Input
Amino acid sequence: MDKDVYGPWAVVAGGSEGVGASFAHQLADAGINLVLIARKAGPLERTSADVRAKGVEVRTLQLDLLDPGALKTIRAVTDGLEVGLLIFNAGANTYGHEFVGSELDRVQGVIDLNITAQLALTHHFGEAMKERGRGGIMLVGSLAGYMGQARLSIYSAVKAFSRVFVEGLWLELAPYEVHVLELVLGVTRTPAMERAGLRMDIPGLNVADPDDVAREGLEHLADGPLWVAGGNLATAEKRAAVRDRAGLVRGAHEASQRLLPKE
Ligand SMILES: NC(=O)c1ccc[n+]([C@@H]2O[C@H](COP(=O)([O-])OP(=O)(O)OC[C@H]3O[C@@H](n4cnc5c(N)ncnc54)[C@H](OP(=O)(O)O)[C@@H]3O)[C@@H](O)[C@H]2O)c1
Output
């Protein structure tokens, strides 16, 4: 990590736990100051204390990115800072449900976090990076974004949105030396996944470590528009195939039923 390219400040939206905390630690190791955003005070304070101990400046923002005033609050803390890197990591599925019969306002919450909030931060921080002629934007995506899944149809679709959106943004910002990357993750052992009851002990299942995928993402920031982390490239390629979607979607559905907690 070159702090002359991606520093002196990085904003990690979802920077308190799991992959987000790994990003924070690795950026601090590179001497980059941090603005960490998350909802729960405990993990946020723990991570910020740990990374502050590495000698960088840390500002914490305990807020829900779904709050309508989130960007205003973020700007109040970051407007005076030179932010060279934005990582949008907070993107989990907050509502896994069959679509018909679901509560539309909760469906909207998944869209608002993974699309609306992500676009708002990318739009805001991307502008200053473009003017400065350097920087990086990493959006954390998912293998889910390659294929529709029952009970996860909205989550899969918002991750597909991000993956395609990044390709256009990557082209748009490349002439300004702003590196844009969609970091695609497969199953990764994070506190959020453990709380969600995801079964990660299935024989043969590839489960990645948060530190490893965060490191891959940071190492490949300039290799956009897409990087599939955690040894999941072959799976992504298989899921992206155009032929026999019905067979592919059904096969993946059966596999994910073993992974997801029972309703
Ligand atoms: N883990 C996996 O298996 C996996 C697989 C594929 C893709 N991904 C993607 O990887 C990213 C991170 O994965 P993860 O879910 O395992 O999480 P994580 O990296 O362990 O942590 C998520 C972070 O986001 C914060 N966050 C979540 N919702 C937020 C909100 N509304 N406002 C502010 N902060 C929020 C969390 O803190 P608070 O909860 O305190 O707010 C936490 O700091 C997500 O984009 C996810 O879609 C993960």
